[in-house]
Amino acid sequence: MTSFAALRAEQQTRWRQQLRHLCREVVQQPTVAGGLPDQIWLFGSRARGDWDGWSDTDLLVVASELAVAERWADRLIDAGVGGDVLAMDRAHWQALPSHASAIWRAVAREAIPLLDQEAA
């Protein structure tokens, strides 16, 4: 690995750790009505590692119900954690790998977990 590539990989690792920390901080704030999100995922160029200076932070919040995921997505946006924050219920998230859209299949394949309440 070239020194530039190593520096970029190190920067990406630090950035993801900070993002995980920010997500945990938001989720540890007083509970949103309806419960906690199941998972928060990073997707897009930041997850793939091909980001540049114009890239934003794409997040996907998964919860048992869409309304709960939407409330947490709003919280993450309000906290400035993500540029694009999408909400999805658990059933739709689980169906993404076989979605008709290649874009959604790529999201499911490339997404990186930032928070996983189900595993906790």
Task: Describe the structure in your own words.
This protein is of the alpha+beta class. The longest helix has 26 residues, at 3-28. It is globular. β2, α3 (66-78) and β3 (84-89) form a beta-alpha-beta unit. A 4-stranded mixed sheet has the order 3-2-1-4, with helices on both faces. It starts with a helix and ends with a strand. The chain has helices spanning 3-28, 45-48, 66-78, 90-95, 102-110; strands spanning 39-43, 58-63, 84-89, 112-116. 48% of the residues lie in helices and 18% in strands. The chain has a single domain, classed as Beta Polymerase, domain 2 (2-Layer Sandwich), CATH 3.30.460. It is built from 5 helices and 4 strands.
Short synopsis of the structure:
This protein is α+β, with helices and mostly antiparallel strands. The protein contains five helices and four strands; from the N terminus they run αβαβαβααβ.
CATH architecture descriptor text: 2-Layer Sandwich
**Rg to the nearest angstrom?**
15 Å
Order of helices and strands: HEHEHEHHE
Total domains: 1
| Proportion in β-strands | 15-25%
Apparent shape: globular
User: Structural class of the secondary structure composition?
Assistant: alpha+beta
CATH topology (fold) name: Beta Polymerase, domain 2
C-alpha end-to-end distance: 35 Å
Helix content: 40-55%
**Weakly predicted, low-confidence segments:** none
- Main beta sheet strand tally, sense and closure: 4 strands, mixed
Strand order of the largest sheet: 3-2-1-4
Question: Total number of β-strand segments?
Answer: 4
